[in-house]
């Protein structure tokens, strides 16, 4: 026991929560957890602010932010390309009124068919070569090709240097050309003095 006499301070129950001024006030154990949570929250806030303001300046995350803009550029170009490139669009077909039409005067006229030889027209055969029987041989030769001989005789005109086929007008030209090819006589002469196509066999006729 204490050697000092008891006073009013000794009347405080031992279970009382009151403490003397000389004793240190103890912090409850549960208050330490709240302080830890507050500290962690402040640190997390500081880290978030640093990531928001500092990291973009350092270039971190710039590629991720730039990719949406880059992906939008082709879409914008594609949307503008049809209107910006008129050369790719099909050109309008010319209207029928703008197409030049050929006038009737410019239409080419059909070429008339070549005249055909008429073997029903009679042929006169004259011998100017001095060879006896030559006129009859020519008559037989053209008769085998379907021609009709109207007369066979001797040439009474100016002496000729070669064989000649005479014809009168365009109506007899086709017959004269056909006989020229058949007999091998290239010389043709138009003359109104002959009423029929006349074959005159001159010197050297074969």
UniProtKB/TrEMBL annotation:
Bias (Basic and acidic residues) occurs at 1-13
Q: List residues traversing the bilayer.
A: 33-55
This protein's source sits in the domain of life called Bacteria
| Low complexity bias (residue ranges) | 66-88
Record bears the keyword Transmembrane: yes
Q: Where is the LytR/CpsA/Psr regulator C-terminal domain?
A: 122-205
Region named Disordered: 1-20, 64-117
Keyword Transmembrane helix attributed: yes
A Pfam family hit: LytR_C
For this UniProt record, the keywords arranged alphabetically read as follows: Membrane, Transmembrane, Transmembrane helix
Mind telling me what this protein is named? LytR C-terminal domain-containing protein
